[in-house]
Amino acid sequence: MNSEQTRNFQDRLECELLTVRQALLNELKQSSQKFSGELAELLEQSLPSEWLDIAAKHINPQQYPDFQRLLKLEAALCQIDIGQFGYCCDCETQLDIKDLTADPTIQRCHNCSEKSHQT
Questions:
Q1: Which residues does residue 94 pair with via DSSP β-bridges, in sequence order?
Q2: Is residue 108 part of a domain?
Q3: Zinc finger (dksA C4-type) locations (predicted)?
């Protein structure tokens, strides 16, 4: 993958990250549970870089699909920062560009993904 492709993926990930952060805030604000509104306020007062740590302490990630997506987006952006984006996290082979285009947050190649689902 060349640097222009990586930059395009980074732009796409950052754009989606903003959208997912807002969706998570909206989800929390619309919840009938008191702690959700309080968490939304806390997140709004915090730096975006602190959101994962804060939210993970206060919510069950399984209940919030937007939080799950936020985790994946942050991981993909971190991989770009360290030069590992586009490589399988298990076997380090280059991921298929078609797969990354479909979902730039994927972490595993087809073989390793199948193995991880078997365990």
A1: 87
A2: no
A3: 88-112
Look at residues 63, 70, 62, 16 and name the one whose alpha carbon lies nearest to residue 43. 70
Instruction: Give a yes or no: residue 48 inside a domain.
Output: yes
Kindly state whether residue 99 falls inside one of the protein's structural domains.
Answer: no
Provide the whole-model pTM: 0.86
Does some domain include residue 92? no
Gap between the Cα atoms of 38 and 44, Å rounded? 10
Q: What is the Cα–Cα distance from 28 to 97, expressed in whole angstroms? A: 34
Cα–Cα distance measured from residue 1 to residue 42, given in angstroms and rounded to the nearest whole number: 39
Q: pLDDT by residue for the chain (119 residues), tens digit each?
A: 889 999 999 999 999 999 999 999 998 999 888 888 899 999 999 999 999 999 888 887 667 888 889 999 999 999 999 999 999 999 999 999 999 999 999 999 999 988 877 75
